[in-house]
Amino acid sequence: MRSARLRTEFTFQVAIRMANSLPGQKPRASVGGKLDSVDMNRFRTIHKESEGMTRRVILVDTTTGVCYLEFARGSAGGLTPLLDAHGKPVVASPGEYLT
């Protein structure tokens, strides 16, 4: 259980750093130390699928609308912004994640 919590906190820290590094974005959440409840609520899961030890999750940043793909297999994984055909970040409309 503790391992899952640490993985979740790490995923959100990486997502916050990626969101804050987008052009024109001002940092809106801290990335050092413990995440507070505001940071944990910034990202919503809009799709989740798993098969065996493999998990794929699409997160959306509710501040910017940018979507991220989290991929995990066993104890390894990564997080990357979803890109469209032109290499630009996929931005979800509020109706897709504000339910």
From TrEMBL:
It comes from the Bacteria. Pfam families: DUF6440. Residues 42-91 form the DUF6440 domain. This is DUF6440 domain-containing protein.
